[in-house]
Structure formats: C-alpha cells, structure tokens
Amino acid sequence: MTRDESEDRATAAAPGTPTPEVAAAPPTPLLALGSTSLQYRGSAAPVVQDVSLAVEPGRSLALVGESGAGKTTLLRLLLGLTRPTSGTVRFDGDVLDPRDRGQMRRFRRTVQCVFQDPYSSLDPRRRVGGIVAEPLRSLGLDTRRTAAPKVAEALERVGLPADAAERYPHEFSGGQRQRIAIARATVCHPKVLLADEPVSALDVTTRVKVVDLLAELKHEQGLTLVMVSHDLSVVASLCERTAVLERGRVVEQGDTAQVLGDPAHPYTRRLIDSVPRLPA
Amino acid sequence: MTLLDIRDLTIRTADGRVLVDRLSLTVSPGERLGLIGESGSGKSLTTLAVLGLLPEGMTATGSVELAGTQIVEASEKQLNGVRGRDAAIVFQEPLTALDPLMRVGRQLAEPLRRRRGLRGTELKRAVTQALEQVRLPEPGRIARAFPHQISGGQRQRAALALALACEPKLLIADEPTTALDVSVQAEMLDLVDTLVREREMAVLFVSHDLAVVARITDRAVVMKDGRAVERGDVREIVRHPRQEYTKALVGSARRLESALDVRSAR
Lengths: 280, 266
What we know:
The complex is a heterodimer. By secondary structure, chain A is α/β, with parallel strands linked by helices.
C-alpha cells in the first residue's frame, strides 16, 4: 500500500460530472480497460474488441449484454485471469502485471470476486469458517487464530448465524451459499467486488434479499461493484453506471438512469423492451 | 371433458418425505394453466408425474388422469402410448433434452417416423417443416447440425419442435425460457403463444417468473413446499394476491421491476 491515497480522493471528488471516455490519461480509476481487445488464437473474430471503461470509487459499474457478448471475458480481464491481446488493463493507474508480486498482493486485497453458481464456487470438503478465512490466510494477513473474529464478523455482516463457520456448504440453501461467497469476498475489506451474475441462480424472493445485502455492503463498506448481469432490474437496483456489450464491443455506456431510461442504441432498447413485465 | 385431471397427487421419496402434498388441478382442452413456485416447491415433479417420468425411488399416489388414461401406476407400455401424443414436455435446459451425439434432424425424425409412419423424402420434408414451424432459420443446416453446434435459443426451438412433433393435446413447458437471454426469451414466448393458439393446444406452463407465466397463461396455481397455496386468474393473483406467500412473491417481483422504471435526468 505505497500509493498516495489523495489520488483516490481526487477521482472520487467528481462523481456527478459525466465521465469522459477513458483516454490516454485516465483520472486514476480503481480499474480501467484502455482500448482492450482479446482474440483467441485461431478464432475468426475477437471476443472483446476495443473496450475502454473505468471503475471509479463509489460508482458501481454494470456490464450487461446477452450470452456470448463478452461480459464474463471482461471480468476475467479485469481480474487479471486473462491477458488482453492488445490494449491495457490498469489497476490504480498502473498496468496490471501478474508477474509483479507486490502489485498482485495489493490487487488481491483490493479486488475480490463472487461467481454465479453458489454450488460450484465453494469447496464442499471445507467448513465455511475455513472457506471464508481463505483470503486472509492466502494474503498472509492472518493466522488461523487471528482470522477467526474477522470471519465471524464477515458472516454476521452477510446475515448468517455465528455457528455457520462450523458447518459445511451442503448444509446451506442457494441464497445462504451466495452469502457465504460474499462473506469470503468481503472478509479482507476490498474496495472492489467483481460479481458475475451473483443473483441469477436464486429465486426471486432470495434474489431481492441478496440485492439488499449488496446494496448494504456498498453503503456501509464503501464497496464498489463491478457486476455482470443479464438482469436489467438487478443492474438498475445496484449500479450507478452501465456499459452495454454487444458481440465484444461496448455499444453504449453511461449513468444507469440514462442508459436504461433513455437508451441511445437500438440494441439497448431491444434488451429493455424484451424484459417481461407484470400485468399492471 | 377435462384433458388433465390431477386429484390429491402426493409424491414421496424412497425414505417417505412428502415432496408434493395432495395437489389437485385440472386443465381443459385448449386451456392454459400456469404453475408458479420457487425451487423445491414441487412444480417440476408434478409435471414429471403427468408423464410418468418420476425419478427412480419416488412414488406417486392419488390420481393423474391424462386424456382418459390413469398415469399413476400405469405400465410402461401404456405410458408410451400417452407420451408425445397426449402430452409432450419441453424442459428448462435444451442441452440435456437433446441427445448430444445425434444430429438435430435425426432426433426429430424419430418421433415423426414412429407416430406418423413417414419414410424417406416424406420424412425429410416433415423434419424441415417441423423446424420451419418453430421459426428456425436455415432448417436444412440446423437439421444437419449436432446440438452443440447451434445456439441456446435455437436448441430450445429444436426441443419445442421435438415436443410438437407428435401433435400433443397438452404441451408441458417446464421453465422453457429460464436458460435463455431476455430477447431470445421474448421471441420464444411469442412463438409458444402463437403455436399453441394455432393448434388449440392446452398448456401447462411452469415457471418461477410471474411475469413470464402471466404472458402465456390465463389461470395459475401457486405452489409452496409441495402444496397449492393459491389459485385463480393469473392477473388477479398478480394484482391482488391473497396468501402471505403469494404476496411476498409478487412483492419481490414488483420491487425488482420497479427498479427498471428509471427516468433519465436528461
């Protein structure tokens, strides 16, 4: 944590003003893609094409689009799991370099993630306490003993009973498992939470509760979300900004109210019009 | 005469747990009934019981009468006469409904050959027609493709074509659009709506999504923990839910939906 914090504040100071498209000198967003493209070897078309976007503190970003649009690939790029074929991925202003161990340690502490399927994302053979403590242990922040109170706190924050730590994932419902995944991702107090369809696998009543939990974490922990979702109502509930992806390109991005309320691109309009609505 | 008459259907696991509890419902010819519920409510098991497809170890008691045939404790031979002809089903995940090792056209040819006795060029033409009626582009290419070579939306259309191949009196659709993107879902719902109207087919439409059910059906049954907790006109249920559970369900759906009603500052 060598970076001067005043830089973060400088970016946070201008939330109301529309963000200029990320150009050569971005105003140190937490994460940023600059003209990023990704093409797999031997494939005809790039999966992600010339995408520029920025994640600013306190301005949660939604990536929406249909299957195959490249949403999850963008998340993988932002997580440093995939390297772009051209363009840059920046973390805190610096180009993300998986070989820079110091930077990666800072990165892992700052950026955590939650996946879609709460059944496959938790190790079935480990107790919940061990699962939630994992980031603290692997980042070398805590020993088993010093991690315990932090784990208890994280579990309480997501609304799980204290004895959850002693139990196994299979003893929990889908919604509770997603809470466990969120507890694991937030136990080290990251600034950014990348979430890939975090509520898509949940029933509607559970979905509302997990959306509420994420909103609470945003406000109370100052967490900034980067969320992939095809569910526009979830996006509208949680994210200040929205980028719409079609076939690997960002066709529209801006304030969520603007993008969903007054879409400029026909593809965005089609997405919004397709959402089935309840009878009035 | 009712087409489907379920009375006091109870489904138990091998160790005696009750998963569906004295459920009763009826579907008349040409009628559309929605089955609404969250995971574990027993809605999918109910649809499987209608075709005698319950998983190993599960037992059904009570009465399920489909077009005059008693399904509960029917023999496999009796069931084979019913499946496809009286009722056919479209499942949530088309990738598991289709055989991954067989070209789409061949899978579709099988029921057409057996039920309608078609052979050769006639059969080939019927396959193309079946793919055309579900509005699949390039039916020739789709017929030659393996399921993994076409998109999810196209697979679900192929699965629908398969279900319609024997011209069933009742189409059972179990979350047929849950795995699809919203715009593909909208097209699929339109398609089901049109095809069912053209054929005057009855529909049992299962979904957790109230808005989707309301799009297709007239009446609905709300299920929770294996029981029917509320039933009636689907619009009426959405507008004035009576039971606590239905209120919570409608409330959650409305809350998420209201987030969409954002007005631009512009």
